[in-house]
Amino acid sequence: MNLPPWQEIDARMRAIGAPATASETHGVLCGLLCMGERGARAAWLRQSLGTGSAPPPLDALYGETLRQLDDATFDFQLLLPDDDTDLAERTAALADWCGGFSFGVGLTSGGRGELPAEAAEFVGDVTEIARASIDDALADDTDEEAYAEVVEYVRMGALLVRTECGARAG
Prior knowledge:
About 60% of the residues lie in helices and about 0% in strands. By secondary structure, it is mainly alpha-helical.
């Protein structure tokens, strides 16, 4: 199974006037889940939607994200626009995801200060990636390759944080 399409989540977030973007919302969720936060679903909904209930595509997003994070085949995906979307928009969505992830980690008790060294380094990197932007008019094939490499780094780093920190809350 896959995450609901970014476009579907993005449209739903806009329709309900959510304060966060689709990618940022997924990043917050992943940060909470990777840290093993008890009550992650409730905290995620409160922070992302300002409510305790989720429309169906967000329920599906939560369930599939949790499944992917715990999948032994490393099938985890970031909720980002597809490759047909211009690079500037994809980069902005990746930056939003990273900002959300950092925020989700920060919401957990202890936050980054109590992370194992590799996880803390990754969260620092993600915080820097959250500042990324690109001028699509100047983008070339090297930028596409760099984007793909950063997405893969973030994806694997989130799994590292889940492995090193997710079990602490049981």
